[in-house]
Specification:
This protein is 43% helix and 19% strand. The chain has 329 residues and is an alpha/beta fold. It has two domains: 166 residues, 3-Layer(aba) Sandwich (D-Maltodextrin-Binding Protein, domain 2); 99 residues, D-Maltodextrin-Binding Protein, domain 2 (3-Layer(aba) Sandwich).
């Protein structure tokens, strides 16, 4: 009769160690072999904007550290879905990245055609843009409470500029309306510069727009800033209260940009890309290029922090969008 094998304690320890080593080796190899060739970064926006300028500046830094070329592909229009589809068709090996922006969360919430945190792995934020609520030079409203009081007394009379229904700016104003108890009229414009022009010219009563625009026009008396839509007062407007200090208890708003890879990308590659992108985002050459655009250079401490930011934004946008008749088709 054959002898039954009885594993010793030493044998069990050796076996477990061997199995563990077998798991670690492929993981270590994946990181050691990365990158194997050029890195592609998809930007779902036209060339020439702040996002494009920033990514191209970062690409120069990445080429130095990764020792491979970094190729930028602009794939605008299609409400970000053209760029996203290009990423989804690529291998999950970290060689194709996508530049995300906070506007994509608004499209996700309204259209429900993609899920950034499910389909992608967020890597890091690369910059944030503070926002303010501003009125025109001829506005009778000296403080946010005056504008709110007028809106309550005159339903539907207050007009505000946004890039269109379902945009972040529209959703934030809708949140303010719900909390403050008034209803205004959304007027769509092509983008931030046109929105600010509309405020200056008196075409609309107010707008939520990047603080960099207010910093350009407020000293000339062309706009008045009633509140910083931020958690703290802005250094450009230290005398201007935050929106909560001004009496409207809504969440702060900053437009952000960042990077992601396809879900399924090996964890060591995700960690490597996070480190490389965080270092590139905060490089002096990148800071110099982006500061004139009013961006605050940021980098997530870990990928999970960026994922959490996307979840938080999606939460307030989803809550605000309830009851709004939004259709971006």
């Amino acid at each position: 009769m054959p002898t039954t094998f009885q594993p010793t304690r030493r044998y069990a320890i050796q076996t477990c160690a061997a199995l563990a080593a077998g798991c670690v080796l492929p993981t270590a190899r994946a990181q050691a072999d990365f990158p194997r060739g050029p890195i592609k970064i998809i930007i779902p926006l036209p060339a020439g904007g702040a996002a494009d300028v920033g990514v191209r500046a970062m690409a120069i830094e990445l080429e130095k550290s990764l020792k491979h070329s970094v190729v930028i592909e602009n794939k605008p229009s299609g409400l970000y879905q053209i760029g996203l589809q290009a990423l989804l068709q690529a291998p999950a090996d970290g060689h194709t990245l996508m530049h995300l922006n906070s506007g994509m969360v608004a499209v996700q919430v309204v259209q429900k055609r993609f899920d950034l945190n499910r389909q992608l792995i967020p890597l890091t934020v690369s910059g944030e843009t503070p926002m303010v609520l501003m009125v025109g030079p001829a506005s009778p409203h000296k403080a946010l409470k005056d504008l709110v009081a007028f809106g309550r007394a005159n339903p539907g009379k207050l007009t505000y500029a946004t890039p269109g229904p379902g945009s972040i700016e529209h959703l934030k104003v809708a949140e303010i309306e719900k909390v403050a108890g008034f209803t205004g009229l959304n007027v769509a414009y092509k983008g931030g510069p046109d929105m600010v022009k509309a405020v200056i010219g008196g075409e609309v009563d107010f707008a939520i727009a990047p603080a960099i625009f207010a910093a350009q026009f407020a000293p000339k008396g062309q706009v008045k800033v009633l509140a910083a839509v931020d958690a703290t007062r802005l250094k450009e407007f230290p005398e201007v209260p935050t929106i909560v200090e001004a009496g409207v208890n809504v969440s702060p708003l900053r437009l952000w940009g960042g990077f992601a890879v396809l879900a399924g990308t090996p964890a060591p590659i995700v960690q490597r890309l996070h480190r490389e992108l965080a270092a590139a985002a905060t490089a002096p050459s990148v800071v110099e290029r982006l500061t004139p655009f009013g961006m605050l250079i940021q980098a997530s401490k870990k990928p999970e922090d960026f994922r959490r930011q996307i979840d938080l934004d999606a939460a307030w946008m989803s809550e605000t969008a309830k009851g709004l008749k939004l259709d971006l088709n």
